# Entry
Amino acid sequence: MSKTKKAYVYKGFERFWHWNQSLLIFLLALTGFEIHSSFSLFGYETAVDLHNKAAWAFIILIIFAIFWHFTTGEWKQYIPTTENLRAQAEFYLFGIFRNAPHPTKKTLISKLNPLQRLVYLGLKVLIIPVMVVSGLLYMFYRYPQDGGIEIINVDNLEIIALIHTFGAFILLAFVIVHLYLITTGHTITSNLKAMITGWEELEEDDEEISKKEDNE
Amino acid sequence: MSSMKNFTKALTFFLAIIAPLLIVTIALRQPDNDRAMLEALKTKYLTEHQSGVDHGKMEILQQDFSNPHEITAACLSCHTERGHELLQSAHFTWEREAYIPGRGVTYLGKKNLLNNFCTGVQSNEGSCMKCHAGYGWSDKSFDFDNQFNIDCIVCHDNTGTYKKAGGGAGYPVMGENGPDFKKILASVGLPKSENCGSCHFTGGGGNNVKHGDLEMALLTAGRNVDVHMGVDGSNMNCVDCHTAENHVMKGRYYGVSSTNTQRMSCEECHTAFPHQKSILNEHSIKVACQTCHIPVYAKVNPTKMYWDWSTATRKKDGEGYENLDSMGNITYASIKGDFEWGTHVQPEYSWFNGTADHHLLTDKVDTTQPFLKINTLMGEYRDHNSKIIPVKVHRGRQPYDTENLTIIQAKLWDKEKGKGALWLDLEWERAIVEGMAYVGLPYSGKHDFVTTEMYLPINHMVSPASEVVSCKECHTPENGRLAALTDFYMPGRDRNFMLDFSGKMLLILSLIGVAVHAVIRIISARNIKSAQSH
# Structure
């Protein structure tokens, strides 16, 4: 076992963003699938109301998150790489059962393993934008109809609704797998603790001296 | 030091995240103005109209009139231009010039159109014209250009004592048995709801028979029946909404008026954005106000839902007869056939862009269709001018010519027996021959009955806000109110079954995947542990 050192991995805003996003996604899923008539929980009108309010909160959160990612340079965490991609996949499929070490070393500059990079990037640039755009069209579809701006006329809500539903299923599937993968850190709870406190035991690396001291 | 830092951090988060959220929430809130608007409207209609004239002081009205035409002449001697107006009014002409897409310019109205109740006025004018704003329209010879044929009093009597005689072609009862005309003329004024109701409540042969949302109970009922006319509410009159300019009334019934002009809408008073919740206002682009705000009609007395003419003319002991149900409604009459009634009826729904078509006496019956539409409401989801409106669908069976494939106008009424009137002689063949001869259309000698549907607007009996149709009554996968309108996607009602199935499979497979993975992890961890301990 290599030496480990506590490092401040997830900054305050990052955690705030993450947990609010998770709350909003749960709320949006609950109310969204009620609107889809999958079950009854809040009542239809309340569900629509909550869904729309949560959507606006989510959009505001996303705007702040984008700002944060670019000003801090954290967006670079999501640059996809093929290095170790296969090894990472093999770890989840086989190595994890043999107590093999994680193939990707987590550092402050590279917090995400190649699989995470790919999946999170996909969420950020594909699934969430699709949900936001289709959601906004869902909310405002009457306006193009009413205003008669032909190019954005929505003659049928169906295609928008189906895309929005499709995205919802993908997001839910992500949440299921994501929740499970929390338990695959160095210990069962180390990932969860890190996202709550920001601190995580990282393998010591000569070049990667954590800024633990600076922060205390 | 550290706690201070934490506090600053918390404050920063608050300012950065919560504050913008609050600001945006407040900014997005709709102003609380709907109550104010309603109160302003209520105040407006609280003011009673005060007449500027006391007709009791008019010398010309102090005569003993023996003839109603003289009364009209007396009216017109002061109101010199109103006669011309009335000669143009649909209340007098019973027809309008209309352009109907696919048909061209037409001259249609109650004068010559079919309906799904007593079928049509032609050859029956003597009886039907009890509801004509004129005197003497008993047959085709009626003079529509004579101002003295106008009946002013039927609309402007404010005493409630004026009555047109049954079978009198629009003439009132005069003389000893008639009302006190001096009293009537002394107090003429704006029409009251009773005036309008004397015809519009009783169409089809009795109270609430035809429309379902227009009936005598509106004169006495409370807000729970009609928020506008409720005597414990705004207590509004028909003419408060159905205003007139030079006797041209606002608000036209698509059963007889084809073009999208002079129609009335709730928005004229309530604006297009009457709700606080924008999501409700957004519905208004596709959904008429009445669709949600009139959950049921015929809230007090029953309305006729079905009229089967094919069973008419049955006799018991050589005589016509009637059957009543336990509520006292006629369920069978030899002169008319079988009826079905309904109260608290949930409307059906249709797209409507304001233009209507009608099945004319000269139109062909398409026997391959399950039913014949007496009138057709134009519109669909993709038509930007269309909205979903509530309708009463009156179903029935009417006689048609099986050779010529046209609907038959039968002669129903006459003053005396033996002239071929169905209601007196109880014989179809003769009634058909007489009726078709009157309208000048051929009859092959062979008739049968065709299933018909007629659409009637549900615009009145607006319920209090607390009884409005709820979201879930339409946004539901099965048996929703709008289940019959399938030309669009509605959230909560519609879904793509492939997508939903695939989505569910994806979630199930994800769950199975993580479960299997977890189980293998637990087992292999045990194995490793036991291997180490051995």
Observations:
- The two ends of chain A are 27 Å apart (CA to CA).
